[in-house]
Amino acid sequence: MITRSRMWLAGLIVLAAALTLLKIPVASSQGVTLVAYQVSEDLPVNDPDSPLWRRVTAVQVPLSAQAVARPMTLGTKVQSVTARALYDDEQVAILVEWADDTQDDSMVRVQDFRDAVAVQFPLVEGQPFFCMGQQGGDVNIWHWKADWQADIAARQDMETLYPNMHVDQYPFADSNAGLAAGPATYTDPNYLPALASGNLFATAQHLSPVEDVIAGGFGSLTAQPAEAQNVHGYGVWKDSRWRVIFSRDLTSQETADAQFATDKVYSVAFAAWDGANGERNGQKSTSQWVSLQFGGPVPEAVSEPALVTRTVEVGPLAFVPAVVITLLIFGLAGGALIVFERSQRK
Amino acid sequence: MNRLPVFFRWLIVASLADWLIGRTFTRSAIFMPKSPLVIGIYQTLGTVGQVAATLTDLLTLGALIWIAWHERRTRSARALPLALVGLMAFNFASLFAAPSGWFAVARHLLTLAAVATLAVRIGMGADRASRKIAAVLPALAILSGALYQTGIAAYQALRVPDLPVFARALFDTGELLVVLSPVLLWWTDRPTVRGNRSAYVLAALPAIAFAALCIANPSLSGILSIWSIGLTLYLPWPLYAVSLWLAGVTVIASLRRHDPAGFAIVLLAAGGYAPQLSTHVFLGVIAVWLLASAGEARAVASTPSPVNEVQSSIVPQSLVTEGTGP
């Protein structure tokens, strides 16, 4: 029997389906938001010490070990990153900081792994899986690599670590180059297949320490072509802390790139690797999605506080402060209750 | 729930579908082999989950409007209806202008005001002390999560280039309160094993499944938990398993005697902890209102006097239950 309430329910379901199909939201976001502030001067894309960064509010983003796809390291070291963002009329810049006791910026030896950090943006409406996206939910990832950063300053090779090594000859390279033989000295680049095929890892000279990649689930990570690599990066390790700046034009010609309009809210997620802990590829710490919003002008400097250096340590006794606060709440609430009930009896 | 508007029942079902299908089951798709059949099934389920989520959005707004109207009509309340209407206004405004700065702070403060008002009402009510503590615990959990978010928003509004003090401790405190809430709600009534054997057995199934997942793959259970309900599982996992079990027992036992505590737990679970969406915040507010109103209704029912005739109109009659506890 069709009652009035059932008709109401049917109407509501139809309305809900229509709103869903037309992508008209009824609920709004209420989570943590990374606000990018507008600057009129040049963006400090190579200067993490710039006063501009000190004037914008940081957001601390908790990370946890990637534990879905193998190989995984459950005891990852980076437990949170601190993020700030700035933008001007053309570009957006994101400063990411995290604590790391060691500077691991060499991948020359097979037993060495690099420190790295990545920011990720959905390429679809909504939020796909926060770790590398999912089928039908591609993500654009900016992956900063400490060894690429070091390579820009001075390219590292075997002789960097083993200066006394001896090589008779590098075949197919200019014999006069000797130990200094590098990709540029090869007479025919086809003898360096990775370089010839455009593999960014084999590039003789990295133009940016950031690799611009896309993914649509585990095992689908794909580097954009060399000519589409358009993310600038700069990282510094100091006082047991990495500070890395990503920057890119707000809009891009590449379809595989995230596009930013300053009147919209986007999602961003973070990942970090500690090379000293053997973290590489899927062995990393990842965050959930955080909202990224383009806000107003950067505030005027009132003071010059130091950049945040506090870190959150999550040890086995991490719940002790929570237990103490809970007991305090119970004590106060219980006390208030007793006082109130006594006053009622009187 | 019998005499509450019928859409409260729809809200329970829709929020359960949103939570279990849209935010939990479909997300397990990332672990599945991606054959076309599996993809098709999960895409269909995903669409069902999205429709359930939108339906929950609509019903939540309807429930809030009804509560505001009911509060104004029956007890001439001003603060709570204003706070609820304000929350809805902020929700709609946030659809057009991204919430940031003082706008975001005001929105969080309004949430705090609404939940705090209800918490005070529970605390000052004439219900048993143990019931009051049990009912106020979920409100405190919501307050902790909301305070955590308010701190971040306030620092951004004040342009303080630092992180909120005690943010992590506050967040962890809220999670501890979330875990304790079902335990205390169960303790206040303590459904007998003899009379509720099936409830204890049925409720044990998800708790055992959760424990097995924690033992087999602790990090995986953590990711699923964060993604579906917002809990980080930083406490020892047996606590969560016990809490889940007792929550299940309380829900089933409450459903049998039409006690809204069970519905409140379902709404709290569907809303999750420190939620990211306005609808999930509203689910928490509605759940606490149900607990507060149920406490008042019990107190009215247990003190027979002519005044009760008047007072009983303040709370929906469906919330008047005697309970089975000691």
Descriptive notes:
The complex is a heterodimer of chains A (346) and B (326). With 346 residues, chain A is of the alpha+beta class. Chain A folds into two domains: 1-28 and 313-321 and 335-346, no CATH class; 33-155 and 205-297, Immunoglobulin-like, CATH 2.60.40. In chain A, 18% of the residues lie in helices and 25% in strands. In chain A, strands 1, 2, 3, 4, 5, 6, 7, 8, 9, 10, 11, 12, 13 and 14 form a 14-stranded mixed sheet that branches. The longest helix of chain A is centred in the last third of the chain and has 26 residues, at 320-345. Chain A is globular. In chain A, 40% of the residues are buried. Residues 302-316 of chain A have low confidence and may be disordered. By secondary structure, chain B is mostly helical. Chain B is 76% helix and 0% strand. The longest helix of chain B has 40 residues, at 36-75. Chain B is globular. Mean pLDDT of chain B is 81; it is low at 307-315 and 317-326. The chains are: A alpha+beta (346), B mainly alpha (326).
